Amino acid sequence: MIGTPEQDAFVNKQKWAVVTTLRADGSPTNSIIFFARDGDTLIFSTTADRLKTKTLKRDNRIAICVLDEGAPYGYLNIEGTGTVEDADIIPGHIAVNRAMRADPNWQPPEGYTQRLADEGRVIIRIHPARVSGVVNRG
Fold first, then answer.
1. Which of 33, 40, 60, 82 is 20 to 30 A removed from 48 (C-alpha atoms)?
2. Contact residues for 43 (Cβ-Cβ < 8 A; gap 6+)
3. 0.90 exceeded by the pTM?
4. Looking at residue 111, what is its pLDDT?
5. Total domain count for the chain?
6. What is the pLDDT of residue 46?
7. 136 phi and psi, to 5 degrees?
């Protein structure tokens, strides 16, 4: 579980989030992402040369704010640590695409593995330590 049963149910229904990492000077930087749940962790795709990857390699603290796409606009803040995975990334990318497309049967097209390699794709895995927010508004 990531949080309470209600928090877990909320995370399972969402696909958008804002992820925050820390620059070298300690200031936060945010990015909007699609994410997927993988057991008791959350994962998202980015490239090795993006700021969020670089900041996580230096300081693995991370926060993610999972957003409800419609009224009454619940949210869930998840703080923890992040790891950058650059090996065996295909299952994670398939999971993120399935979540993003809301299609549990989505299959990668021909050449998908090579495209991910050409783009320098990695998976960021978020290991939750603290969960808070309001998931049942209204």
1. 40
2. 35, 36, 37, 92, 95, 96, 123, 124, 125, 126
3. yes
4. 96
5. 1
6. 97
7. -125, 70
